[in-house]
Design goal:
The complex is a heterodimer of chains A (329) and B (346). Chain A is α+β, with helices and mostly antiparallel strands and 329 residues long. Chain A has nine helices and ten strands. In chain A, the strands form two sheets. In chain A, strands 1, 2, 3, 8, 9 and 10 form a six-stranded antiparallel beta sheet that branches. Classes of the chains: A alpha+beta (329), B mainly alpha (346).
């Protein structure tokens, strides 16, 4: 397999130009960076950059923000740069706008859940054509709503069906047992509660409400409709905010993604004070184009290993690397 | 037909054993802090999901959980015995007899403790279709006389009726009735032995010995050299030990002397092969190991069936110990130490 000729280049310049260099020359993937410190003597006093990349976190925040709204981030045509501070400021601004809406939405969802659960619980007792408030406020009789499994029901019927202090009224039958209510004088309440506990009665606390179970369920259902309308209004407001902020957010996202990648390349640089050194390989055919791009960035110095003698050693190593990377690809 | 049924039991029992609890399951169960956690784990992670499908773990009670586990064991018995009946050895009758006797003894225990009505709450209603007993009538008894009335027409009446004439039998009914009732099991076994395969005879002889040896040992530990009571209970038609060996064992002065003598019997080598502190736990461990080996390698379908059921019962006993341990807040390692047949990373 023929190995393309490559040349080793060394770029040095002020730290202020490092990002510009990386964006102009490295982002397209044709430049293969090497750890600059490998080509430098330790005694020169250079060191690799050790920095935390702030952009992945920003990318994640923006993705979370969009996910929270239920929208997706789309690419934008215009490429812009954004600083970490600018991106964080944008995130904070949008989050603040949405925060109060989310708080209200959360409350509405909790109320809705309560209504749905209440309706579901009362649905087992529709046959009770009595005012629940009157029943639960009896002065002398304790009332318990719940579920009696079949195994407990059989034992109850065998032993307690004729007990004058216990009345169990099945309201709904299922394969597993009976939803029902039992009544007992308040004086016998503890003893009877114990009996039903031993019969595996699963007591259900029904939310306090006025009216028959049918009426209560209708009230819950109408409440759910009102809450759904309010939730739709909240969603509309959230959508409006998104429409307004979508473009800046998508631009920031695209920029942050790109800057995250570029920032990651900084770790190949060797730095001393305000000077950086960067080393890497370029295809020999691209040398002219590469140097022209570098010329557009002020104060950079480029050294290209011209002679075969100078580049042969590096060519062999990079050829071997390339051969292995091609095989594994 | 018999061969096909035989192969069916071998395959089915071994396949069912494949669904047993793993050491990881036991560790997870022993680490539970509440009974609902235990119920939830059994329901969501083990083969007990089906039998617990109707149970809401949040409302799990010990009684109900143990009842459902025993229901599962009974269901496994019935599933395997459907095959067993077709090959001519009707040990299903023996299982029902054992289940009946267990219920009678439970009822008697509640009578002895002065809480006869509480038997209702542990009554396994799923047995009602198979038993000769009217279990709900048992739940209504208030004293020994009403118990006898509930047993009229059953074979158990004649075994327990003599106790009615004993003075000072109150609060000791269980201890007095157990030998008479358990004797029915041994009588049934001796009857079955007439037609049983050698494998089945070996199983039950060993089962009997590993049950009776700890009973006699406990008697020796508590009462010393009183051989007569234990002598009365022995059924030499079932044991694998010679009469002379039993005589030597029964003459032991105390529990330690009994163990010394035991080490000279055919079971001595097995007992020496494991570490133990209590003979009853060691006997359980040996029986477990024997059953596991024979489940895998025996070609006698009845032996495989019996071994599988013994292992299934052991699993339920283990779970019961875990439930008790969780209920009393014991640490996980202490609970795991009470289990038989569980290898766990200490």
């Amino acid at each position: 397999m023929a190995v393309k000729k490559r040349k080793l280049v060394q770029i040095s310049g002020p730290m202020l130009q490092l990002d510009s260099f990386l964006q102009a020359c490295c982002a397209d993937g044709r430049f293969e960076p090497e750890q600059a410190m490998r080509y430098m003597s330790v005694s020169l006093g250079y060191a690799t950059l050790s920095e935390e990349n702030p952009y992945p976190a920003i990318v994640q925040h923006l993705e979370d923000l969009a996910g929270q709204i239920g929208q997706s981030l789309t690419p934008v045509v215009k490429n812009e740069e954004i600083t970490a501070d600018e991106a964080n400021h944008l995130i904070d601004e949008v989050s603040a706008q949405l925060h109060s809406l989310y708080t209200v939405r959360q409350e509405l969802l909790e109320q809705r859940k309560m209504c749905v659960e209440g309706a579901e619980r009362y649905s087992h007792f529709k046959v009770l054509n009595v005012n629940i408030e009157d029943v639960t406020n009896c002065e002398y009789v304790a009332v318990r709503f719940g579920f009696l499994p079949l195994v407990g029901y059989e034992k109850f019927m065998a032993q307690y069906a004729n007990d004058p202090y216990i009345l169990f009224m099945p309201c709904e039958e299922s394969a597993e047992g009976y939803w029902g209510v039992y009544f007992t004088p308040k004086q016998k309440q503890r003893e009877v509660d114990g009996i039903f506990s031993m019969l595996y009665f699963e007591r259900m606390i029904v939310p306090g409400a006025a009216g028959t179970p049918e009426e209560i369920i209708r009230n819950f259902e109408s409440n759910v409709q009102i809450l759904d309308q309010q939730l739709d209004e909240i969603s509309a407001q959230v959508s409006a905010i998104w429409q307004e902020q979508k473009e800046p957010i998508c631009r920031a996202y695209q920029a942050a993604q790109k800057q995250a990648e570029v920032f990651a390349l900084r770790r190949f640089a060797a730095c001393k004070g305000k000077i950086f050194v960067y080393v890497g390989w370029i295809p020999a055919a691209d040398e002219k184009q590469f140097t022209e791009r570098l010329e557009a960035i002020p104060n950079l110095r480029v050294v290209v290993k011209e002679s075969e003698k100078e580049s042969s050693h590096f060519s062999i190593i990079s050829a071997i690397k390339k051969r292995f990377s091609d095989r594994s690809a | 037909m018999a061969n096909k049924a035989s192969n069916a039991i071998l395959a089915k029992a071994r396949a069912m054993y494949g669904h047993r609890l793993t050491p990881e399951d036991y560790e997870a169960l022993a680490a539970c802090r509440t009974l609902p956690e235990v119920a939830s784990y059994l329901k969501n992670h083990t083969a007990y999901a089906q039998v617990l499908s109707q149970m809401n773990p949040a409302f799990a009670q010990r009684n109900r959980l143990e009842l459902e586990l025993h229901h599962e064991y009974f269901r496994k018995q019935a599933a395997l015995c459907r095959y067993e009946m077709s090959i001519g050895q009707d040990i299903y009758r023996l299982f029902i007899l054992q289940a009946d006797i267990q219920q009678l003894l439970t009822c008697l225990r509640y009578l002895d403790s002065g809480r006869p009505g509480d038997y209702l709450f542990v009554l396994p209603s799923f047995l009602q279709k198979h038993t000769q007993l009217n279990l709900y009538a048992l739940a209504s008894v208030t004293d020994f006389a009403s118990l006898l009335t509930a047993l009229e027409g059953t074979p158990y009446y004649s075994r327990l009726e003599p106790l009615a004439e004993l003075k000072d039998a109150t609060n000791r009914l269980t201890a007095l009735a157990a030998p008479a009732l358990n004797g029915m099991v041994y009588d049934e076994l001796i009857e079955l032995f007439k037609h049983a395969s050698k494998g089945m005879q070996d199983y039950y002889r060993r089962w009997y010995d590993l049950h009776m040896l700890p009973v006699v040992w406990r008697t020796k530990r508590m009462l010393g050299s009183h051989a007569q009571e234990s002598q009365k209970r022995l059924r030499l038609g079932i044991t694998a030990l010679p009469v002379k060996t039993w005589n030597d064992l029964l003459q032991a002065e105390d529990g330690d002397a009994f163990v010394e003598e035991l080490m000279r019997t055919r079971y001595g080598k097995e007992f020496r092969s494991i570490e133990w502190t209590r003979l009853d736990e060691a006997a359980g461990q040996l029986q477990f190991m024997w059953c596991e080996k024979n489940l895998r390698f025996s070609t006698d379908p009845v032996v495989v069936l019996l071994c599988y059921l013994e292992l299934a019962k052991n699993e339920i006993t283990n779970i019961t110990h875990i439930i008790e341990g969780v209920r009393y807040g014991l640490p996980k390692e202490q609970i795991l130490d009470t289990l038989i047949g569980v290898d766990y990373a200490a």
